[in-house]
Specification:
The protein is of the alpha/beta class. It has one domain. It has a 4-stranded parallel β-sheet with strand order 1-2-3-4, sandwiched between helices. Strand 1, helix 2 and strand 2 form a beta-alpha-beta unit. Helix 1 crosses helix 2. The longest helix has 15 residues.
Length: 101
């Protein structure tokens, strides 16, 4: 999906695709809030992992209380994180288990 995709559209797409995970990105601090709202909406879906990345999340302070797995800025490491989470045990939807910086 493209930049600035509305949260309801993201949720519909994740459900329609029966996705096991979704990646949300934000490159600019002005779009970070919308990205965080998107991660919260996706993490509320049963059995769906949410991952996030982008320059807006590079400072550790910008990742505080963001649900999901931070992918960093290395594409190979990000792919390994996504793979490990998606092939791992079923997701437990608790804030503690879903905030990984």
């Amino acid at each position: 999906l493209g930049a600035l995709t509305p949260v309801p559209s993201l949720v519909v797409a994740v459900l329609a695709a029966e996705a096991r995970g979704a990646v949300v990105t934000s490159q600019r601090s002005v779009t970070r809030r919308a990205a965080v709202e998107a991660t919260a909406a996706v993490v509320a879906l049963p059995g769906v992992a949410v991952f996030y990345a982008g320059a807006a999340f590079e400072p550790a302070s910008s990742r505080k209380d963001v649900p999901g797995w931070y992918l960093g800025n290395d594409i190979a490491e990000a792919a390994e994180i996504v793979e490990a989470v998606l092939i791992g045990p079923p997701l437990a939807h608790t804030h503690e288990s879903l905030t990984h910086a």
